[in-house]
Amino acid sequence: MSTITEIFSSNVFDESVMKARLPKETFKQVQLTIKKGKRLDSAVANVVANAMKDWAIEKGATHFTHWFQPMTGVTAEKHDSFISPTPDGKVIMEFSGKELIQGEPDASSFPSGGLRATFEARGYTAWDPTSYAFIKDGVLCIPTAFCSYGGEALDKKTPLLRSMEAINKQALRVLRLFGNTEVATVKTTVGPEQEYFLVDKEVFDKRKDLIYTGRTLFGAKPPKGQELDDHYFGVIKSRVSEFMKDLNDELWKLGILAKTEHNEVAPAQHELAPIFTTTNIATDHNQLTMELMQKVAKKHGMVCLLHEKPFAGVNGSGKHNNWSLSTDTGVNLLEPGETPYENAQFLLFLCAVIKAVDEYQDLLRISVASAGNDHRLGANEAPPAVVSMFLGDEITAVLKAIETDEPYGAKEKELLKVGVHILPRFPKDTTDRNRTSPFAFTGNKFEFRMLGSTASIAGPNTVLNTAVAEELRQFADALESAADFEAALHDLIKKTVQEHKRIIFNGNGYEESWLEEAKKRGLLNLVSTPDCLPYLLHKKNIKLFTDHKVYTETELRSRYEILEEKYCKTLGIEAATMLDMAKKDILPAVTSYVHELSDAALAKYSFMPDADSTYEKSMISKLSSLSALAFKKTEALEKCVMDAKEIKDTGALARFYKDSVFAAMNDLRATVDEMETVTAKKYWPYPSYGDLLFSVR
Ligand code: ADP
Ligand code: MG
């Protein structure tokens, strides 16, 4: 048995492997590319490719792929083998620098939102050397960005890398103002906590809705759900713990820092959190984690559900995006410091985030928008759809003291002057434990909690990085031209707090009164995906992304189209699945049961005309009227789906799906769920919620 330290990163072509296998000069060149973004020349690339191939073949790999993240939100790969024919009819194993650096997948079937006309079907993939190559299932995977020949980003990674560049540039300007000349790069860091459900595969296979849509479209409440809170942090069942062990091994081999795991609130719900790392690597790692969760679950006879809301009535699954900024010298810029100067710097970065979250609430909301996540946001479990920020009492009090020029704390006589006074130490545990805030400061990082469990974290982090980059740019502009730096800094922080304090809310985000209060403060409450998407194309947002060269306007419009289309398609598939289930399985099943009840009543009557048939008769009557109603609602849903086909404008279509199709789906579900509660188990065509939620024992 090998130890964890031996298996960790054993399938990754990481720095230590490069150091051991590359000639010294080549190693240096690659490091320059990785750390400073220097272009790799083709001679060097050939040497790297060859070493990578030899290493991969020793590990049993036969193929390679450019591994990329198209706008479907999942990863894509097309395998090519290393073989190359020789004149004597044999093959040799080859992999050139050209193949390492650039690939050309036929990309015509990936969503591009009109970016790539169909005649220009090919896009190209380009190696992202900041993310290490790795081996998965005998395939050497090379993390890449995916672009059209016109240079437009067709993926989620390219804009993310651009946003990291944008925030690096502006953060460095700010650091220089504080006299820091050593730091060469600032990178954002992320630790995403991933929630998921595990259900038994045999039970899963009997549910068409789970198979086609990832969530249950019907299902009456089980006698027991999460009301006892007995699952949260509970003892992990042996089958689940076997799965977790296996999963950890697989993740560790890929150098993924899987760290904590526990049961979540809902039955069958669990969570995995890695140790944080650089944002683009964290993004790759989260995609791999989701993929491996599904694969490893199958090996254990289970299915891993990553949908944001697989079951009504119990919690859905989210992803907490813990985010911070860190320098190449190892300093976390969101950690309060020891000296007045460090504290001032901390406050300035904090203010940049406050201003960014306030001014770009809409973009943050859009970055987590999807049909699946709409079920969570505002549904009394995840954070509400209103974006607000939790800072905790202590920091809020400090900011208030600065804002109002009043003394801070009971004992202090003096006013708190930024850059002159040391801030009090904030004990880490003033952090938000009620977990109702969408965006919480947790001592040395922010936790963005609105993300759904399925989505890539690339989008939210692209928004976050770019919005904060913009505020840092404005701050740097103002401070670089200031005559008195300390006075200007103090005023800037004061002004930012005055203008953006409306976004700060330390109370309970689930309370009805907060929604009213938020409205008074002028905060946005964009409840659904069709409500929020149009904001993407607002002038200020196009300006933000184009100014920082993160998206071109064309790229942004294409994203908008893809998101809207995906929303409509998701609801379309769900509606079609419901119709299929109702017409082919549920209504016929109820009719058979009614038939059996009638047979029983008739039999009773023919043997004993005076026998009491109250039970049979009342069930027949109840089920007959319920199934008549369900049939009517099925027809209504069917009509809605037909009407949707007539709508050409995708914006209008998304609205129609939300207001009409989705409403008709819920309406049908209510009646079917009621029928389930009165139909004999052996007639009901699907495993129940109880069977699903307690399937893994
Ligand atoms: P919890 O939220 O359960 O209290 P922690 O606060 O310890 O747990 O961490 C949650 C996640 O935040 C982990 O993935 C951790 O690695 C990550 N994290 C910690 N520090 C940072 C940081 N500076 N930047 C980004 N993520 C971080
Ligand atoms: Mg957390």
Short summary of the structure?
This protein is of the alpha+beta class. Bound molecules: adenosine-5'-diphosphate and magnesium ion (MG).
Question: Notable features of this structure?
Answer:
single chain; 697 residues; alpha+beta; Ubiquitin-like (UB roll); Four Helix Bundle (Hemerythrin (Met), subunit A); nine-stranded mixed sheet; seven-stranded mixed sheet; 23 helices; 18 strands; globular; binds adenosine-5'-diphosphate; binds magnesium ion
Structure description:
With 697 residues, this protein is α+β, with helices and mostly antiparallel strands. The chain has three domains: 4-155, Roll (Ubiquitin-like (UB roll)), CATH 3.10.20.70; 164-195 and 273-280 and 318-550, no CATH class; 566-693, Four Helix Bundle (Hemerythrin (Met), subunit A), CATH 1.20.120. 49% of the residues lie in helices and 13% in strands. The chain is built from 23 helices and 18 strands. Strands 10, 11, 12, 13, 14, 15, 16, 17 and 18 form a nine-stranded mixed β-sheet that branches. Strands 1, 2, 3, 6, 7, 8 and 9 form a seven-stranded mixed β-sheet that branches. Strands 4-5 form a two-stranded antiparallel ribbon. Helix 11 (340-359) crosses helix 15. It is globular and about 100 Å long. Magnesium ion binds next to loops.
